[in-house]
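Reference record
================
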Amino acid sequence: MEDETEPVILDDPGRIKALSHPLRRRILHRLRAYGPATSTTIGDVLGANTGTTSYHLRQLEKYGFIEEIPERSTGRERWWRPADTPRDLRLPAPDTVAPEDRPVLDELIRVAHAEDLELFRRLPTEYARDRAWAMLSRGFAHMTEEGLAAFYEAYIELLHEHAHRREDAPPGARPVHIRLFTMPADED
């Protein structure tokens, strides 16, 4: 595996497309949050049939996001786990993507944005229900482009310092959604 602290640009259109499907994203999240599963168990939890989940699992495997657990798989029952992928996987700059591949990147951004909107919709309820785990912060600052880039890198470093992979997490650790986004405020 590549160095976990070095950012890896998701510049393969096939990998971008693999991540742009909502069910694949839900499958990948499920495996990362709860550990190994079969297409049947994933289908039951996500409300999809086994054939559909099997197809999407194979697509995620093809692009290196998940892997089969051969020692746990028997006959037709295949067990899957997240592959050992970099923790800092970033989207390419739009101007570096070939024009014919831009719709794939746009779709991934659209699907991820829809997920984020759902998380924001749930935030007030989660904040009231489980304050120790549902935290929020809003900020406003004047920054230079270089300062914002440095802030972002420091944020990623801090995330790496405190985050654990599921299999290495200490007792009491839970999966949490964490989002950071910035955008110019002078264009409002």
User: Anything to note?
Assistant: Residues 11 and 140 are 31 Å apart (CA to CA). Residues 102-129 form the longest helix (28 residues).
